[in-house]
Design a protein that fits this description.
Order of helices and strands: HEHEEHEEEHEEEEHH
CATH class of one domain: Alpha Beta
Low-confidence stretches: 10-24, 213-218
Helix content: 25-40%
CATH superfamily of one domain: Peptide methionine sulphoxide reductase MsrA
CATH architecture of one domain: 2-Layer Sandwich
Strand content: 15-25%
Number of helices: 6
Shape: globular
Oligomer: single chain
CATH topology of one domain: Peptide Methionine Sulfoxide Reductase, Chain A
Length: about 220
């Protein structure tokens, strides 16, 4: 084999290697967003039905109290931290879907839950996310034809809620409620229906309402 032939072989091999590298799909990166939409059980359930979401965690954010608890978190909002696969969805898409799961016209809480702890918010992690969130709100306002009162706020410290709140809407653990001794999942379903959450979202958003809410508690 001549020197020229060997060089051609080396060039061909390098070309094949480069082609193989470009064929490898982009590696997924898990990113997060933090939003407040009233009862965190409900928000968690809604996001769990969205494409690209890999995990949801209920918690508290926005107040000054350290290590807040469910019994004493009035300074904070109930929030959910959403982890998502950025090769399957993106921040703007999730914010847009989130807006269509809540009553964006209510400043005093959400549905039957009233007070600051149940008000809505998008806690952007940086300026780029804040810009995307505001653009999503502007688009939603135009589509809805009403003013959206959900604010875009800056980064916050996220405090994870007690373990029993996590995945509450699908838990088989029995609890004593006004519905009797039932599973948390059944109690949640009764609460959500009784609170009128889905009915109000459908009434407000119509065909734009995020359909994942109808699977909640199933």
């Amino acid at each position: 084999m001549t020197r020229v032939q060997r060089m051609k072989q080396v060039i061909a091999a390098l070309s094949l290697a480069a082609t193989a590298l470009t064929a490898i799909p982009a590696q997924a990166e898990t990113k997060s967003l933090v939003v407040a939409g009233g009862c965190f059980w409900c928000v968690e359930s809604d996001f769990d039905h969205m494409d690209g979401v890999v995990a949801t965690t209920s918690g508290y954010a926005g107040g000054e109290m350290q290590e807040p608890t469910y019994r004493d978190h009035g300074q904070h909002r109930e929030v959910v931290k959403v982890d998502y696969d950025d090769t399957k969805t993106d921040y703007g898409t999730l914010v847009s879907q989130f807006l269509r799961t809540i009553d964006v016209t209510d400043e005093g809480g959400q549905f039957c839950d009233r007070g600051h702890a149940y008000t809505t918010a998008i806690h952007a992690g940086n300026d780029a996310e804040a810009k995307i969130a505001r653009e999503a709100i502007a688009e939603a306002e135009k589509s809805l034809g009403k003013t959206i009162v959900t604010p875009v706020e800056g980064p916050v410290t996220f405090w994870k809620a007690e373990d029993y709140h996590q995945g509450y809407y699908m838990s088989d653990v029995k609890v004593l409620t006004r519905f009797g001794l039932v599973s948390r999942a059944k109690a949640y379903k009764g609460y959500r229906e009784g609170c009128g959450r889905d009915a109000r979202v459908r009434d407000l958003w119509g065909d734009q309402a995020f359909m994942g809410v109808h699977k909640a508690g199933s």
